[in-house]
Every structure is written in structure tokens, then in C-alpha cells.
Amino acid sequence: MDSIDREVLERTLEWTRAGHRVSLVTVIQTWGSAPRPPGALLAICDDGRVVGSVSGGCVEDDMIDRVRKSGQPDKAGLVTYGVSRDEAARFGLPCGGTLELVQEPVTETGWIEDMLRRTATHELIARCLDLQTGKVTLESATRGEELSFDGRLLRTVFGPRYRLLMIGAGQLSRVLAQMAGAVDFQVFVCDPREEYFSTLELPDVSYLPGMPDDVVNEFRPDANTAIVALTHDPKLDDLALLEALKSPAFYVGALGSRANNAKRRERLAMFDLSAGEIERLHGPIGLHIGSRTPAEIAVSILAEIISVRNGVQPMQKKPVGVASDGEPAAAGVCAI
């Protein structure tokens, strides 16, 4: 579950516990260039406060106005915006876009508590809402499931947040951690070298002591996990990669030039890794954007991770003709 969905549910729980009436709004279908995708959530408090989003703002304003004038709905129902071009323009829906929403009163919060608890333990959950009865049930979901709605039963899938495990606590890791947090990754760092580990003081970053191979095993990577080896020290990076490449992690990458990564693949082949597992390695890591500074390299790495996460083939990879096997010209900057 991303931080926005979690915030919507946490705030809904907070408001209802304080005695407010709250309705939850879910985007179930869009046509045209709608601003928010199916599954996007919005919570509206009876005093007009909102958290989350289903559009660029105008739809939210109208729904707040309805709640203030008429109160919260008594039962779950469909709400549609942008049927006509004039209405689409009025509500800021570009290109004649249309939003179909389900708005439901929150009358029971046990499922919210259960949802937050189960997704925090990296469980994938399907939330099923019966619009006729208003009953909400939670079920285990399978990866790849998408929102479905048959006119009565709305089924939405919530999963754990994406995690980024960095091996190495150098300057690049510091910048990458800050950027990854901004795009909703939970960030973790492992580095057994105390002189590095002790100086990487960042809020919202979890520090995992121990050797990289042990840490990766204990971390239990799943399909919501990215692992990047950034120490540029084979003794540490290779230990992590030996375990990471056998895991379900959706992304595994390693810092280094093309020549260094070719040698790394030769070393990995000497252990119990298959050719397919070694092929999963993203190395040189990141997209080819001419990056040289730690911040630019972090941008290229994070862009590739997001590309893979979103199922988009990374096209801006370093071509064969680019010289990248030697040391970079700028002192202290590693070629990727």
C-alpha cells in the first residue's frame, strides 16, 4: 500500500474515532485523460476536511460541497463526473475525461484496522465492498490482480509499500535514499563498515547491521523489493547479489562500469546461480543520462527502478558504443 492510501485509511480511522461521519470515495473507472487512476482513494469528513485525491481538485470541491449541504450518503452508490464535454471542462477533466466513483459511508472501522495491520506485514489484500449491503470483507489477493466492479461488488487490491534495500552507506546512498523516500519507497541501508554506517544519519531510513548476504536473507525480499549494491567493493556487493538474485525482488542492480560488471557476472557464475538469475542483474546500474555527480547517478538509478516497477522496458540504457569501461574523468565519481 502506498503512503497516500495508508494516510487516507489512517485519517479515516482517526476521524471516525473522534465521532465524525466519514465517506470513502474510490475511482473505479476512467475514460479519456482522467487525472487519477482506478483505485485512487479520497476520504471526506463531515466538517469538509479531505485526504487523498480522485482528480485535480475540482471534483473534490464539488463532493465537499455536497457533503456540507446534504450530509454524508446513507449507503454506498455510484457518482459520475464528466459525462458531457461542458461538465468535463467544469471539473477540470482534460480531453473530455470521465470519472466513475463509488462513494460509501464508513460505518464500521474494523476492516481498516485489519487492513493496516496486514499490509504492514507485507501481505497483499483484496478489499471487497458489497454496494447493496454496504458490507466490507478482506481476502488474500494474488499479485497481478486489478480493481474489478460488476455493478454490485467492488474489489480493490492493496499491497505493501515498495522497499529499497541499499548495500553501502556512501554519498550516493545518502542522495538515493532521499529521492527514493520522496517517491514512496521504504528505504533500508546495510553497510558493515562502521566508518560509513555511523555517518549516514537520515530520517525515515532504517539501518540494518550485519554482512550483506545475511541481511538480504533476513530481509526476506519480495516482489515489492528493489536491492542495489553501491559499495563498489566486490567483497560486499557480491555477497548481497548472490542472495538478491535468487530472491523475488523485482529489481537488483549493481554499481560499476561495463567492464566491472562483466567481471562480476563471471564471478557470480562460479556460485550456485543460474544463467537466468545472473541475467536479472541490472549492471551497469541506471539509465544512460550522462550522469556524473552522485545526485545525477541517483536520478538515473531511481528512474530505472521506477521503470521496471511500472512494467516499462528501460530504453535509455547505455549503448555498446559508449565508452564506460575506464575510470570516469571526474574524481570521486563512479561510472555506472
Describe this structure in words.
The protein is an alpha/beta fold. The chain has 2 domains: about 5-160, no CATH class; about 165-310, Rossmann fold (3-Layer(aba) Sandwich), CATH 3.40.50.720. It has 11 helices and 15 strands. The chain has helices at about 5-15, 60-70, 85-90, 110-120, 170-180, 195, 210-220, 235-245, 260-270, 275-280, 295-310, and strands at about 20-30, 40-45, 50, 75-80, 100-105, 125-130, 135-140, 150, 155-160, 165, 185-190, 205, 225-230, 250-255, 280. A 6-stranded parallel beta sheet has the order 12-11-10-13-14-15, with helices on both faces. A 5-stranded antiparallel beta sheet has the order 3-2-1-5-4. A hairpin with a 5-residue loop joins β6 (about 125-130) and β7 (about 135-140). The longest helix has 16 residues, at about 295-310. The model is unreliable at about 320-335 (pLDDT under 50).
Secondary-structure blueprint:
Blueprint: H1 3-17, E1 22-31, E2 41-45, E3 50-52, H2 58-70, E4 77-81, H3 85-90, E5 98-105, H4 110-120, E6 125-130, E7 136-140, E8 148-149, E9 153-158, E10 163-167, H5 171-182, E11 186-190, H6 194-197, E12 205-207, H7 212-219, E13 225-229, H8 234-244, E14 251-254, H9 258-268, H10 275-279, E15 281-282, H11 294-309
Parallel strand pairs: 10-11, 10-13, 11-12, 13-14, 14-15
Antiparallel strand pairs: 1-2, 1-5, 2-3, 4-5, 6-7, 6-9, 8-9
Helix pairs in contact: 5-11, 7-8
